[in-house]
Amino acid sequence: MMPLVAIVGRPNVGKSTLFNRLVGRRKAIVDDMPGVTRDRNYETVTRFETPFILIDTGGFEPVSEDRLLQQMREQSQLAMEEADVIIFLMDGRAGLTPSDVEVVEMLRRVKKPVFFVVNKVDGEKLENEAADFYTLGVGTLHTISAEHNRGVIDLMEEVVAALPKSSTRLDDEDITRIAVVGRPNVGKSSLVNRLLGFERVVANPTPGTTRDSVDTLFACNKKRYLLIDTAGIRRKGKTTQKLEKYSVVDSLRSIERADVVLIVINAEEGVTEQDERIAGYAFEAGKACIFVVNKWDTLAKDNSTLGKFVDQIKTEFKYLSFAPIVFVSAKSGQRINRVMEEVERVMAQYSKRVSTSDLNRVFSEAVEKHHAPLSHGRRVKFYFATQVGTKPPTFVLFTNQPEGVHFSYERYLMNKFREAFDFTGSPLKIIFRGRERRE
Ligand SMILES: Nc1nc2c(ncn2[C@@H]2O[C@H](COP(=O)(O)OP(=O)(O)OP(=O)(O)O)[C@@H](O)[C@H]2O)c(=O)[nH]1
Ligand SMILES: Nc1nc2c(ncn2[C@@H]2O[C@H](COP(=O)(O)OP(=O)(O)OP(=O)(O)O)[C@@H](O)[C@H]2O)c(=O)[nH]1
C-alpha cells in the first residue's frame, strides 16, 4: 500500500490550500473563514517520484482556545498514528501561537519524520517575519507559500525522500469503511454531518465542476472510520434527472468499497423500491448493513408507529432480518450516537473469528439436534467446520453432498452460529465443500 502523508495545523493556516495544490485540483471550500474545511480528506498524489496518500486533517470549529487545543491534540494524535510523514503547518502571517507551541511539543516526540512548515510566506521580504518560529528550536524550518506555489516543490522533494519504501497503513484491518446510501433527499448529507459532529456550511460547487470522490477519515471512541465518498453525498444541487441517476451508481460504487452500509430510509416515505435494490446489492456483496430510519421527528407517533416500521422493514428485507434498525433525526440529532454504536457493534462481529473447536462443537450439536433432510434419497453427512475468513465471517462446512444441502438447512445452521457466537447483526457466509472419502 501507498505511504501516507498528513497535513496538520490550526484552522486557517492553509492546509486545504496546500492539499489542493498537491492534489492538483481546485476546491470550493477553501475559505477565509476559520474551520471551513471540515473534512479530513484523503487523496492520492502521483506527481512525485513516490506516489503517496495525502490527508488533510483540517476541519474543526475553533469554539474556544481550550477546545481548539484539544481538537488539535486529537487531530495530531490521529495523524501521528496514521501517517508515515507529518507536515505541521503554521501561519507566517498570524505568527507563532500558543497552540502551535504545544503541538510542536507533541510532535517532537514522534518517531516519524515531521516537517515544520511556515506557510503564507509569499515573498522574500516576508522571510524575516518567520523569524519568530525559529524560537521553536525544531531544527529545519521550511517556509512556503501554498497559495503562490513558493517553496512547495522543494519541501515536497524532501517529504517524498522521507517516505518509507512501502507501507501497509491503509490496509489496516482496523479502519472501518462506511457507505451512506439512500434515495435523494432522505438526509444522507445531514446524517454525515451529524456523524462527523458538526453542522456544515455546504459550499455550492460552481457549475461544471468535476465531481470529486472524497473520503473522510474520522475517529470515534478511539476507533478509525472512513466515510466513503462524502463529496458525492454532500454534492448539492443535483436535481436534474441525469445526476439523480448517477446517485444510484455512486451508491453501488460506495457499497463495493464499504464494510458497513448505512441504508438511510426516509420515515415520511417508508421503504421504496430503490431502497430494496440498493439493500439487495449490499447484501449480495456480503456487506454489513444497518437501516437508519431518518426524519423520525416528522412522524406523529403512537404506540404502534415504531413496531409498524420495524415490521415493514423486516418484511421488505427478509434476507436482512439480522440488520439493526436505528430511528434517528439527523435534524435534531436524536439518537445519532446510536448509529455509531451499532456500527461498532456490528463491525466487531463482522471481523470476528471463532475458534475451530467452539465452531465444531456448535456445528455438531446443531446437526445432532436436526438432521439435514435427505438429498436424492441419501443422507447428508457433515464432517468438519472451519472459519476461512472474516468480513463477512465465512465458514467452510465439509459434507458428503455439497450440492445437496437444502437452503432452509443452511439458514438453520447460520442461525445456530449467529446465536452461539453473537453474530446477531452481521451477515455470514457458508460454503459447503465435498470431502475426499478416506477408506
Ligand atoms: N497569503 C497567503 N494566503 C494563504 C496561503 N495559503 C492559504 N492562504 C489563505 O489562508 C486562508 C485559509 O486557507 P485554508 O487552506 O482554507 O486553511 P485550512 O488550514 O485548510 O483551514 P481550515 O479549513 O480552517 O482547517 C485562505 O484564505 C487562503 O487563501 C499562502 O500561501 N499565502
Ligand atoms: N425533519 C427532518 N428533516 C430532515 C432530517 N434530515 C434531513 N432533513 C431535511 O431533508 C432535506 C434533505 O436532506 P439532505 O441531508 O440534503 O439529504 P440527502 O440525502 O443528502 O439529499 P441528496 O443530496 O438529494 O441526496 C433537507 O431539507 C434537510 O434539512 C431529519 O431528521 N428531520
Automatic annotation (TrEMBL):
EngA-type G domain segment(s): 3-167, 176-351
Source superkingdom: Bacteria
Listed GO MF terms: GTP binding; ribosome binding
Binding-site residues, GTP 1: 9-16, 56-60, 119-122
Keyword Nucleotide-binding in record: yes
Binding sites annotated in the UniProt record for GTP 2: 182-189, 229-233, 294-297
CDD domains the UniProt entry points to: EngA1, EngA2
Role played: GTPase that plays an essential role in the late steps of ribosome biogenesis.
Subunit annotation: Associates with the 50S ribosomal subunit.
Family classification: Belongs to the TRAFAC class TrmE-Era-EngA-EngB-Septin-like GTPase superfamily. EngA (Der) GTPase family.
PANTHER family: GTPASE DER
Protein name per UniProt: GTPase Der
Record organism: Geobacter hydrogenophilus
